[in-house]
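Kindly go through the following sequence and its backbone structure tokens. Advise at your convenience whether the structure tokens fit the sequence:

___
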Amino acid sequence: MPDLALIPLSALTGWLDYILANPGDFATMLRSHVTMVFIAEFIAIAVAVPAGIAATRNPTISTIVMNTGAIAQTLPALGVIALSFAYLGIGMRPAILAMTIYALLPMLKNTVAGIENIDESKVRAGRGMGMTMWERLRRIELPLALPVIFAGIRTSTVLCVGVAYLGAFIGAGGLGDLVTRGLSTVDTSLMLAGAIPGALLVLFFDQFFKYLESYVTPEGVAVQQQTDDITA
């Protein structure tokens, strides 16, 4: 982490001056950054949550899904962008692909963990009431697992905000444009104009999904969690 004492004082305030002087350009970059994050998250949710549910139903599928997710997480994002560039061209698509790959594992792990850690007595009660497997999933398992699933979405969103910066290398836009421009011109103010809003974006998404996580937590589960925290 850079020593703030080595950053010129003018740069610490200059990043805000740049944004205020160029609101249109900054708004376009911020919009591109957020757009890439949302598209990647939507695709990752559509893939990871059903795959995680399937993994809880079959041990073989679980092994395949979790291993695939782990391998995807180890792939370097810049390498994915470079390899997909030849097929997808310049723009957002290679960056979104890399972000989607990085978002998969946290969602997969949390979906599986959320469903598998449900109190078995609740599932047996649903089975005793004559519920089918899909009814138990829809009415018991998913509602109870939602807080854990949202925690995975929260983690993956933070990862995606960081990976989106790499999109600047293939013309995807986003806040990475300011960082790369600042690096090429050795302008610390420009670099900070791209980096600081990104950090604030991470904090915003983290708190937003933290709120959603608490909102979707069933009341009984929330009370039990508070009890566990007190007695721990």
